[in-house]
Write a structure and sequence with these properties.
The chain is mainly α. The chain has 4 helices and 2 strands. The chain has one domain. 48% of the residues lie in helices and 6% in strands. The longest helix is centred in the last third of the chain and has 25 residues.
């Protein structure tokens, strides 16, 4: 990987109409992706100038598990050469981002919370007297 490439993760926020967010979330669910992963993948695909009907390596058909790992690896390698350790670090960062997104969504839905008493995250129903 080139020394000039900054692979740290940054937050990007945008505002879209509620119906569009719902459509994106539905499509992301169909692909078994987080909404952040879906938006990131769609932006990258759009920047590459894909047209409907083009065959893209790592498309949902090529990745039946839907975890997007093949897509992420192809995105990384299309820009530069990575060692095994560099690839592992890059995709691990993606897992951290996806976990962070999932925790935020679950907290927003009031399904989980952080409990200092329990030393970590717990479901809202597991209060044990908190």
């Amino acid at each position: 990987m080139s020394d000039s490439a900054d692979t740290s993760r940054k937050t990007v926020k945008t505002y879209v109409p509620a119906y569009q967010k719902e459509e994106w979330q539905s499509h992301a669910d169909e692909l078994d992706m987080s909404q952040s992963e879906f938006v990131r993948t769609m932006v990258q695909a759009g920047r590459r100038g894909f047209e409907p009907g083009d065959e893209e390596p790592g498309s949902p058909d090529a990745n039946p598990g839907g975890d997007g790992l093949e897509t992420r690896v192809l995105e990384l390698l299309s820009a530069d050469t990575y060692s095994w350790d560099e690839l592992l670090e890059a995709v691990s960062d993606d897992i951290e981002s996806r976990l962070d997104d999932a925790l935020e969504e679950l907290q927003a839905k009031n399904e989980i919370r952080y409990s200092g008493r329990h030393g970590g995250y717990t479901t809202v129903g597991d209060s044990d007297g908190d």
